[in-house]
Amino acid sequence: MISVNEKAFKLVQELCASSDDYGVSVEKTRRGTTVIDAGVETKGGFDAGRAITEICMGGLGKARMTSTAYGGFQLPTILVSTDHPAIATLGSQFAGWQIREGDFSAIGSGPARALAMKPSDLFEKIGYSDRANVAVLVLETSQKPSEELTSKLSRECNVSPTRLCIILVPTTSLAGTVQISGRIVETGLHKLSKLGINPLSVETAWGCAPVPPVHPEFQVAMGRTNDAILYGGIAYYSLRHERDRELKILLEKAPSSASKQYGKPFKEIFKEAGHDFYKIDPHLFAPAVFVVNNVVSGSVFQAGEINAKVLARSLGFLS
Fold it and tell me: Looking at the 3D structure of the chain, how many domains does it have?
């Protein structure tokens, strides 16, 4: 069985060895946990975000930077691909671990989830768990965790504190925006799974999404990073399905445009929902465009479209 933690740990070692090049800092807690700051008190950058994207995918995906025109404006764009979609995204990259302790709050993602089994139902669906003696956890946060919290996390992963690596990457940092846009394939596969597609039937996946301009205010930054995927993201999947007609009908429900709340910047949608994520239509959280190749029949289907107008409003190109 592939170990996403062991594969990601090798990438973490490369990140630590070249910390100055990546614009990150590396510290050891009193109990020996490695904490990598990729934007809380450091600069981070495009390459740090790209590296963290690959770490989040458990070393089972590749990421690179390019640029793309969205309507009348140009944006940096991240491209990701994987030949192990279910494990790399749902089994590792998915931001499915809510971590709270006192005033500290963070969303946990990355390979350590496969040790702590967070959330367990998702791992049951793909039939995967990890048994490594090292854990790699990525936290979307602007805070540094306490010694007590890092010890608790190591226990939940069943590893020694000295074998736990934590990467801190705020949404308001460049590395943060890069790695969030780098979740384009994961976001799409999660949506397909919710619609009834067996994630294990997906053989390969590819995706791209714009990297939005950084903003210092969390609410604005969160809105921009969501809109990058909802209005600018493209996800491509090769999968096996016995009935083309059924697949085509299902795919029409997949893009973000299938949601009744589609059509406004996410910041506005979030405000109208009273800043309550549970009041937002879950169908909204999906790439703008899906392309699916059914390798059983050879058919190709596409649904959705890039919405450059809403993207421009969200990212500050239009007032």
Answer: 1
